[in-house]
Design brief:
This is Glutamate cyclase domain-containing protein. The chain contains 13 helices and seven strands. It is α/β, with parallel strands linked by helices.
Length: about 325
């Protein structure tokens, strides 16, 4: 049974409003206005529709993760991004048997595996994961590193796209290079050292006509190339840090994890399947797992379960609000 389109449109609008609540005061409400004008409708709804448009059993590329203090160590990641990506991967695997291939720095992949496992996703090599996707016997994901060298990025990107033939590329909280070629933090610090050049792979996907969806919260992420003027006008250091890589659908959010969680909620509403939601219990589990593996709260510079400076309980409550918003569709 399908959900009435008017019900879905109302839900999408509420989800958009929730993720755009700029608790951190970083200018995301202005970014939302620009992204919404470009999209011509709900950002969350457009992202959910794009992800659901891929064939059941298809392969898609996913990227997240940030070597957040790269000038110190390439093993230090941040806690915004991985949890949200895991929620989307879980929803697609359970709901559509989609095989997600997650790309990140080799140094961050062990942590990514831990987060995915906490989300109920089994991490397997590609061939084994393909078996599980075909028979629906496991929620699965495959992890791959991508080069950190500029001179290798284009050739490696073309090879990966030719080999895996992804139906879509999804990015969340993944830093892209600015117009001067530098990968900047929100504080306009160059932290491109040891960083996988995945934005080059994203650019190649766009050039080949592969659909793209991106989530970001600060202006320096893959996808923000779609609204660089708004980033420059409304984000601190925006003119310097704005990423140049665009996306077909750009979801702006106060926290990138929120954007991902809302997309999963919209998918759950469209499929009338509560299993695809990120629950408050799962959100708590994922963020506490991030502490276990040393992911940092990059705003406050410490390892804890608070994301982007917002307390753990705020994120747990947000998950409950998402569940309440989509409940009419699930009923």
């Amino acid at each position: 049974m399908t959900v009435d389109r008017k019900v879905l449109e109302a839900i999408d609008e509420r989800l958009d409003k929730l993720v755009s609540l700029d608790i951190g005061g970083r200018g995301v409400e202005h970014l939302y206005v620009a992204a919404r004008a470009r999209q011509g409708g709900s950002l969350i709804g457009a992202a959910a529709d794009a992800l659901l448009a891929v064939p059941d059993g298809a392969t898609i590329f996913v990227t997240t993760g940030s070597v957040s203090r790269a000038w110190i160590s390439t093993e230090i990641g941040e806690n915004d991004g991985p949890a949200g990506a895991a929620v989307v991967i879980r929803a697609l695997s359970v709901g559509k048997r989609v095989h997600c291939v997650l790309l990140a720095e080799e140094t961050l992949l062990p942590g990514m595996k831990a987060i995915l496992t906490s989300a109920g996703v089994t991490v397997l090599p590609y061939e084994q994961a393909q078996i599980a996707c075909k028979d629906g016997s496991l929620a699965v994901c495959t992890l791959l590193p991508f080069t950190t060298k500029d001179e290798e990025a284009t050739a490696e990107a073309k090879e990966l796209l030719a080999t895996f033939k992804p139906s879509l590329f999804f990015s969340t909280e993944r830093v892209g290079r600015a117009r001067d070629g530098v990968y900047y933090s929100m504080r306009a610090i160059d932290y491109g050292m040891g960083r996988s050049r995945i934005d080059v792979l994203f650019d190649e996907a766009i050039a080949q006509g592969i659909p793209t969806v991106a989530v970001g919260d600060g202006g320096n992420e893959i996808g923000m190339g779609a609204i660089t003027k708004a980033v420059a006008d409304h984000v601190k250091f925006g003119a310097t840090i704005a990423a140049v890589t665009p996306a077909d659908v750009l979801v702006t959010a106060a926290c990138s994890n929120w954007g991902c969680n809302a997309i999963a909620a919209a998918i759950a509403a469209r499929r009338k399947d509560a299993r695809l939601l990120n629950t408050p219990e799962l959100e708590r589990q994922l963020l506490l797992r991030g502490v276990d593996i040393g992911l940092i709260n990059s705003v406050q510079n410490v390892v804890d379960a608070n994301v982007d400076g917002m307390h753990l309980e705020t994120h747990v409550a947000f998950a409950e609000m998402l569940r309440a918003v989509v409940k009419p569709a699930l009923n």
